[in-house]
Amino acid sequence: MIKIGEFSKLVQVSVPTLRYYDQVGLLKPVEVDRTTGYRYYSASQLPRLHRILALKGLGFSLEQIAGVLAEGLTPEQMRGMLRLRHAQISQELAEARNRLIDVEVRLQQIEREEQISAYDVMLKRVEPQLIALVRTILPCHSASGSLFKEVYEAIGTHVGEALGPNPGEGGQTMVLWYDTEFKERDVDGAAAFLLRCRVPESGRMRVHELSAATVAATVHHGSYNTIGEAHEAVFKWIEANGYQIVGPDREVYLYNATPIRLDDPSYVTEIQYPVEKAGNSN
In the CATH hierarchy, which fold is given to the domain comprising 122-277? Predict the structure, then answer.
């Protein structure tokens, strides 16, 4: 047996906390000296204390912990609960990182408000384009990357003849965004490959011809995390020059590298918005 102070060092739990666990009946010492009042603990109590601390970390109250321990908790059940909590915390961390990125982007936007735009927006004509695409409702914008493999595999044996040249391997790719308002979730988007010839449709993959269009366009040199800056620059240009958006905007990926990273500053992306003069009707 060891005194409460030594036990406290061993388990890295403060003496006042151990005394409180004794008071509420959660972890009583194996012996209390009647003369000195010293509390003594044993190594055999470590498994119970480990469960107390683990359950506390899972968010259980001390009253709930007492009930769970009274019912009995197997090591496998404990491991299962901890694995579940581990997954929950990992998800919370990922969401927190995304929120942090969003805050950083907003700060950069505020800092740029009085600066001259780094983007040159131009009006240009894009000829009809034949594309193979998968269009679906995505949980978020960054999920569009998961569709490219599906499109590529659906093109199948026609890859060699059908995919146009690209600085990287595998053909020219783009994403089309169909929503007419911003959405954080349930985003209407499509991942597409530019085709040199028509190929059979397969699964969710469809072959579609994008009509010729006049587009307001700019090139974004930088990570996908900051691509919103380019969209903002094009939107401001459209408004300032009396145009209106008449079709899904496009992100044409001129250069990227696998595996895709949202924070890779070497990527090059062209942003295109089909437009017409405000007030025109087709």
Answer: Multidrug-efflux Transporter 1 Regulator Bmrr; Chain A (3.20.80)
